[in-house]
Amino acid sequence: EGKAMEKLFPDTTYGVESGGDPELIPTLSFREFTEFHRRFYHPSNSYIYLYGDMDVEERLTFLDENYLKNGNCDFLLETPGTPDENSGEFDVLREKGDVIGVFFGHDHNNSFVGEFMGLTMGYAQGVGFNVYGPYMDRGVRIIDLDKNNLNEFSTYTLMYKDLFEYKDIHQKARYLFYSWSPPSPQIAVPILKKTAKALAVAGAAAATGLLIKKAIKKLH
User: Fold this and answer.
1) pLDDT tens column, 84-107
2) pLDDT higher than 60, residue 183
3) How far apart are CA 129 and CA 135, in angstroms?
C-alpha cells in the first residue's frame, strides 16, 4: 500500500508513509529521531487556516499577539525549578509598578515566555556547550527595547541551529556528552545504581559461564 501511494502521489505528503518506513526505522539513531521531532513537530512549522464569516483583521491580530509571538514557548523539556516556599518576590515586583518583565536563565532545557497578572516572565535555555542542554536548540533570548516607549518590548530566541549546523561544532564528544548526561545528581544516582547492578549481573553471568565451560572441559 505504501509503495502504491508513493507512485500515485509522488509530489504530495499523501505519498509519504506518515509512520515511517519500517525497513528504515531500525537504522535511525535516537539523536536523529529527537532532532527530527524538535525540528518538525513544532508550532512554527504549522499552517493556520481561517474560514467563515468573521473579522479577518481581528483574527489575524489575535493570532499575531497570542500564537505567533516568536518566543512564547520554544520548548519545555523539563520541570522548571521552583522554591519550596513562596518568597513574595512576585508580589513585590508587581507592587513596584515599574516592572513589566522578568527573565531568568539559563534554565538548560527550557525556553518560554508567559504573562500573569500583567507581568511578563520568561526562561532562557542554556547557550554554551560545557553544560547539559537542548542539543542544537541552545541559544540566547533577545529582548528588544524602544527608548521612546519603555512600557513595551518584544522578545525572541536566537538558537545555534539558526546560524550553524552540527558539522560546525568543534568538540563533538563534549557536545554529545552534555546532551545526554543527566541534568542533576538526583537523576544521575539512580541511573548509576541501575548501571552498576546491570554490570554486576553481567559480570556474574560471565563468570558463571566461564566456570561451566571449565567444568565441561574437565568432564571431557
Assistant:
1) 788 888 889 888 888 888 888 777
2) no
3) 9
- The Cα-based distances of 103 to 108, 166, 181 in angstroms read 14, 28, 26
Cell of 134: 537542548
Residue 81 corresponds to which cell in the numbers above? 525549578
Q: Which three cell numbers stand for residue 88?
A: 513574595
d(CA 174, CA 182): 14
SS3 of the chain: CHHHHHHHCCCCHHHCCCCCCCCCHHHCCHHHHHHHHHHHCCHHHCCCCCCCCCCHHHHHHHHHHHCCCCCCEEEECCCCCCCCCCCCHHHHHHHHCCCCEEEEECCCCEEEEEEECCEEEEEECCCCCCCCCCHHHCEEEEEEEECCEEEEEEEEEEEHHHHCCHHHCCCHHHHHHHHHCCCCHHHHHHHHHHHHHHHHHHHHHHHHHHHHHHHHHHHC
Read off the pLDDT of residues 3-52 as tens digits, 9 standing for 90 and up. 788 888 887 777 777 777 778 788 888 777 766 776 666 665 667 788 88
pTM: 0.49
Place of cell 547557550: 127
Q: What is the signed CA dihedral for 176, 179, 184, 185, rounded to 10 degrees?
A: -20
